[in-house]
Amino acid sequence: MKTVKQLVGAVALAAALGSTSAIAADPTFFRIGTGGAGGTYFPIGGTIANGISAPPGSRPCDKGGQCGVPGLIAIAQSTTASVFNNAAVQNGELEAGLAAADVTRSMFLGEGKFEGKEHPKLRIVANLYPEDLHLVMPKGSSIGNLGDLADKRVGIAQSGSGTQVAVLQMLEAWGVTRDNMDEAELNNSQSAERLADGQLDAYFYAAGWPVAAMVQLASTKGMSLHSFSEEDLAKINGIIPAYIPSKIPGGVYEGVDEDVLTPAVSALLVVSSDLSEELVYGITKALWNGNTRKLLDNGHAKGKQITAETALDGVEALGVPLHDGAAKFYKEAGLM
């Protein structure tokens, strides 16, 4: 893989020439960690990768080509999501990743489950969209609160996912732990399949709606979603401040006709502080150009909620710094 220095040189040359077109250069690959193929991170990560890329030899932006960073080839990689992505960014195994805000804060500061394991290189490029927690059950099933999941077969999401970290904290507050439930560490698609086959009583997954695997589950076997009480949402917010009250509108999933009250956490685009200011400035600028806007609007439904105007929402309070390159762009754009 070519070095970041090559990319910076390409960007600098493009600026010197006053051109927005892709220039002749060796390609630089930029890996973005996402999540499972049945969730939201993977399609959103793919859209972002397309938007920020401008491979060598491609048509210039002003002639209908890519409007990304000259010479950059961004690739969305399927992973186990937040925890893995943040660790891989910290370790230099990925250039970027999508991750939940609560997990990113905990890993950066080295608190909670990550006590003594700080990830000081994590930097934010943008707040993207809210990830709603889906508590999925078989069609016709319901519970009063999370305590009713004791002694049940429950999908708690993959190890290495932000969903699992948060869900275990929530369940513990209602007296449910690994000791008194039959937990399954599965991705979203696997969980949906197990629920459909009668092998799970419920499963959790935090993602931007609509979630592809749930759309399929709802239209075949059918499903129900747990709607949290306002009191339970307040309790969850007290346990995990990054999880705020939200709503999945009725009709998003076949057979789920009423609005579902549920907690949600912001999804972030995260990079390493090791990446140069020039590179991340170029990526941030490409993320918010008109070409990428069209890709976001015409892709996954959550893409429409990813806007430059909301890119900094909640970021300052989170306690994880913006990357200097991203900050430079937002200041120039009048957003800071």
Question: What's the quick description here?
Answer:
The chain has helices at residues 4-17, 41-52, 82-91, 101-109, 162-173, 188-196, 212-220, 230-239, 277-287, 290-298, 315-318, 324-332, and strands spanning 28-33, 53-54, 69-70, 72-77, 96-100, 122-138, 153-155, 182-184, 202-207, 223-225, 244-248, 260-272. By secondary structure, it is α/β, with parallel strands linked by helices. It folds into two domains: 4-128 and 267-332, D-Maltodextrin-Binding Protein, domain 2, CATH 3.40.190; 131-265, D-Maltodextrin-Binding Protein, domain 2.
Describe it.
The structure is a single chain. By secondary structure, the chain is of the alpha/beta class. It has helices spanning 4-17, 41-52, 82-91, 101-109, 162-173, 188-196, 212-220, 230-239, 277-287, 290-298, 315-318, 324-332; strands spanning 28-33, 53-54, 69-70, 72-77, 96-100, 122-138, 153-155, 182-184, 202-207, 223-225, 244-248, 260-272. The strands form two sheets. Strands 1, 4, 5, 6, 7, 8, 9, 10, 11 and 12 form a ten-stranded mixed sheet that branches. Strands 2-3 form a two-stranded parallel ribbon. It starts with a helix and ends with a helix. Mean pLDDT is 91; it is low at 1-24.
Jot down its keywords:
D-Maltodextrin-Binding Protein, domain 2, 2 domains, alpha/beta, two-stranded parallel sheet, about 325 residues
Q: How many strand elements?
A: 12
Uncertain spans, ≥5 residues at pLDDT below 50?
Answer: 1-24
The end-to-end span amounts to: 34 Å
Cα radius of gyration in angstroms: 20 Å
CATH class membership of the largest domain: Alpha Beta
**What is the CATH H-level superfamily of the largest domain?**
Periplasmic binding protein-like II
CATH-derived topology of the largest domain? D-Maltodextrin-Binding Protein, domain 2
Please give the share of residues in helix.
25-40%
The CATH architecture name of the largest domain reads: 3-Layer(aba) Sandwich
| Major β-sheet profile | 10 strands, mixed
Which structural category do the helix and sheet elements fall into?
Answer: alpha/beta
Strand coverage percent: 15-25%
Q: Tell me, briefly, the overall form.
A: globular
Individual helix count: 12
The succession of helices and strands, N to C, reads: HEHEEEHEHEEHEHEHEHEEHHHH
Structurally, the number of domains stands at: 2
